[in-house]
Structures are given as C-alpha cells and as structure tokens.
Amino acid sequence: MKLNKKCMLLITAILISLLMFSGCSLAKKHSSSKSDSKTETTKNLLSSENTQDDLKDSSDDSDDNTDTSDNNDSENSVDSSNVSSAESTITPAVWEVTDTNGNTIYMMGSIHMADSDATVLPEYFENAYAGCDYLAVECDITNVQLNSISAYKQLMYLDGTTIKDHVSAESYDKVVEILKNAGQYISSYDYMKPIMWVDLIEIAGANKCGLSDKYGVDVNLINRAKSEGKEVLEVESVEFQYSLLANLSDNIQSMLFDSIAHDEIIETTIDEITSLYDKWKTGTMTAEDASESTDDEDLTEEEVKLLEEYNNILLYNRNVGMADKAIEYMNDGKKVMFVVGAAHFYGDKGILKLMENAGCTVSRITPDSETVSEMPDAA
Predict the structure, then answer these.
(1) pLDDT value for 369
(2) Whether 270 contacts 205, CB under 8 Å
(3) Measured between alpha carbons, how far is 88 from 94 in angstroms, rounded to an integer?
(4) What radius of gyration, in Å, describes the C-alpha atoms of the chain?
(5) Where exactly are the structural domains of the chain?
(6) Which residues contact 253 (CB under 8 A, 6 or more apart)?
C-alpha cells in the first residue's frame, strides 16, 4: 500500500518531534536512567503481566520514592572528555544573538537521537561554547527521576479503557502488526495513549537508521557541561513536556494514530528521519523542514484545523516561551549556550525571528568566518 500525500504530510509532522522534544521518548526514559528501583518500576509498568490496577499502584508507589541523585549512566552516553580536541565532520547551524544592551547568547539546534557524528561538534561551536558559563537545554534528561512516573502515567489510560476504545479497530490492528514486525510490541502498550504509539514508530525508524539517544546532542552536552563545571539551566521540564503530549486532544491523537497505520510506515519513517538528520548535520534546515504546512488539498478542513492546533501546541507556543527564557538570560547578564530542539529556531514563528522582533541582532556563525552579519534565509 503506497502512502498517499495526506499521510506523508502527517508523518512528516510527527517526525519533527526528533527536533522538538528531549524528554518524552520511551527510548530515552529507559536508556538515560540507571537500573535503580524506579527504572525497574517503569519497565514493570510496561511488562505484559501488568494490569491497569498495577499501573496505578506502581505509579503511586514510585511517587513516594524520589531519588535526587544524578542518573548519568556511562553506558548510555559517550565519553566527552576529549571531544573538543577531535575533528568534527558536521556543520550544524550555530547563532550569536545580541540584544540592544550588548548582551550576547549563543544558540544551536539539537537533535535528540543521532549517531556518533553528532558527538564531535565543530570548532566554531567550541569557540562559542568555551566562552559560556551556562548550558541551557529543554530539560536535564540525565537527571530525570521516575517521580516522572507521576507525569508519565498521564500518557496511560487508567480509567478502565484501553487504546482499543479510542481508535478504530482497523488502525489498531495494523499498528500492532507493524510494531510486532519491528520487535516493538508488548501487550501492555494497549494502556498507552496514541501519541506514545506514534513515538514507538519513530523510535523503530530511528533505530533502523542507526540513530540512538546515546548520541543525542543534548544528553552529551549536558554530561560534558557537568564534568566541566558549567551550570545546566532547564528551559522547560520533563513534566511540562509530558503534560503537553498527554493533553493533546483525542481528535489530534486519533489523526496521528491513523497516519501510522500503513504498511510502509517504517520505511517512510526511515527516509524522513535520514533526510532531517542530514539537514541538521549540514546546517541546511529550513522553515519548511521545521513545521508542516497545512496548505494541502488532500487535507480535510478538520484535518487542517487539527494540524494547526498540533503545531501551535508542540512548536509555536513553546517557541515563545523559549525565546522569552533566552531574553531573560541575556537580561541577567548570563553567558549561555542555548541548545534546544532544532525545529524551534526556524520560520516566522521560530525563536530566532521572535528574538529579532524583540530588537536582538541574530548572526549565524559559520566555519569560514566568525559570524555572518545578517540572519540567514533558512531562519
């Protein structure tokens, strides 16, 4: 079955989450935490032996056992001690932003699942990073405690229903088949909301591309900053990101679920992820890559409305909060390297444009020169 244009449009929108979220992937939840009691609780939550009552009880129990230690697992991140001395093979976009008072902040878009190429960043990034006292990220995913289970369970059905009660039987059967073939399905996923099934498809595609959260830009920069004594600032939080996903309307989640219920979804996901990752590595992303246009004759009026709502909730509204946070850091005189999902920077509603509208000067740093005096067209 060939994917039609409408499904391709929706799938591309879904995949932008690789460039938007740092804390909401099932893969990241399992791989960025040590095997302490709360990690085991999470794994148990998703084992085929659990019922909804188990999910409720386990979630509540975990809230009473909060551990405040860092969960930096060396097996799930790379050794960053010598990254600045290695030679980079990538040229991601990095910007210098200066306000009217002469305060400067540096910015780079992150990709949350990558390969080893992303662990060695170019010299122009290193020069900017060296002058910063702080690293700002969406959330510190190396210190995510499974008191996050209280947030995580927002993405589960704990009201006596399962996903079968919320999506069509045809779509459900097809997605289960796809996940089984990808080795990604266990029966307790039936208690998860549709957005988490979409996440599983994305993870399956990313893994087949050879991408892993182990090489994610954010996790490795966070570990590096901590080892070097730079303070890590959280622009958002894991709880905030989970809440956004959990509160997506049933109609949005059903639309996204239907869009992954196609035979060629994994292959299409691989193609889209590969394209996005290559554009991130070469610094050639554009506004069109960062969000999906709703100007398409294959979309119904209702689907256009839902896709606009999706973009507003997960991208544009967050861009405003991120830009405001960056301006706050500048007003405080903090020297910050600001690294959030790459999709947030581009377009008329992106962080760079919002900061320019606030009177800031935005310049792109390039391999060939220290800065470019004007904001690039891609922004």
Answers:
(1) 55
(2) yes
(3) 14
(4) 20
(5) 5-71+88-365
(6) 166, 193, 194, 195
Over residues 19-69, the pLDDT tens digits come to 667 655 543 443 333 333 333 443 454 444 444 555 455 444 444 443 433
Query: How confident is the model at residue 257, as a pLDDT?
Result: 92
Would you give the DSSP letter of residue 192? B
pLDDT of 248-287, one tens digit each? 999 999 988 998 998 888 888 888 889 889 999 999 988 8
Where would I find the beta strands (DSSP E) of the chain?
94-98, 104-110, 134-137, 231-234, 336-341, 361-365
Helices 194-208 and 250-259 cross at an angle (nearest 10°) of: 30
d(CA 337, CA 95): 10
Question: How far is Cα 99 from Cα 121, in angstroms, rounded to an integer?
Answer: 26
Work out the average pLDDT over 161-187. 94
Which DSSP string corresponds to 302-324?
Answer: HHHHHHHHHHIIIIIHHHHHHHH
Q: Give the separation between CA 161 and CA 180, rounded to whole angstroms.
A: 22
